[in-house]
Predict the 3D structure of the following.
Amino acid sequence: MSIVILGIETSCDETSAAVVVDGVTIKSNVISSQVDIHRKFGGVVPEIASRKHLEMINAVIREALDRAEIDFKDLDAVAVTYGPGLVGALLVGVAAAKAIAYGLDLPLLGVNHIEGHIFANMLVESEPGLPVLCLIVSGGHTDLVLIREFGRYELLGSTRDDAAGEAFDKVARVLGLGYPGGPLIDKLAACGNKDAIPLPRAYLEEGSFDFSFSGLKTAVINYIHRAVQKGGEHINKADVAASFRQAIVDVLADKTMLAARRYATKNIMLAGGVAANTLLREQLSRRASEEGLRLIYPPPVLCTDNAAMIACAAYYKYLRQDFAPLTLNAVPNLRLGRDCY
Ligand code: KG4
Ligand code: ZN
């Protein structure tokens, strides 16, 4: 018998609902992005995000059911992101999921957003081979996680300052490229020279799996300011984008490969918005295969925020009967592997 789960995701600026069968077949994955609204502010405005989620949530859920050609009565469970994220934004999804669970007497599943990003990989490869190493790189997180068993996560390292996506967004802003900056830098970098500008790469203490990108970000900002003071005509934006992208990817790839070797993992997974980065995928794929490992990564639409990954992660919780009570609340600083409901 198949298990049909409705997933709901509203942790940041995407209102999303998806129907996923047996944790692997995506029947629908509706994503209503608020990016055009937040763009003029150069980043996500939390109050606007929650209001927009409230306006969109019912229509997005309806659309997800329609596209999957099912109705509420065909659902086996409803799953929702309950953290980490913006509290007002999370609350909209949590309230909607609880209302559906209560109204239809369905089991409720509370999903950690970061765990959702990890499980986006299970939508493309349901048996990744354990232990597997996952590099999670999003707008809010940069984590290297060792997974010996799903549901239990060993944090090997994380960022001490800016997240990788945050660094991409800030550099893009200084270059006047727009928001979100990651995809724009990625595209522009393809026409630039990666060796044009020498930039620092922070490896921290020997053997550390932590990251730090604020020095790199400041070096780029200083380079641009100096060039502007000299008249500005010397700035080749594509060269800045290519040099910056190379510096950030070098550190991410080096540390990931070091951890894969240290913990003798079978394979490597990429998760989060920055996992859509073309250079990161290319460089890590090549280096992984040189060492007999496989790099698994979701298609770009499943790297950035979406509800299919939430429904997928929820399926494994469903199998474990790990249900959330109807008192489920939003937990803005929820930690990976530590459920609190
Ligand atoms: O996972 P996500 O959608 O939201 C969070 O949970 O944060 O990640 C969004 C981040 C943004 O910082 C965006 O600039 C970055 O992912 N991003 C990229 C690319 N596509 C999205 N960064 C680098 N290269 C890309 N192609
Ligand atoms: Zn995310």
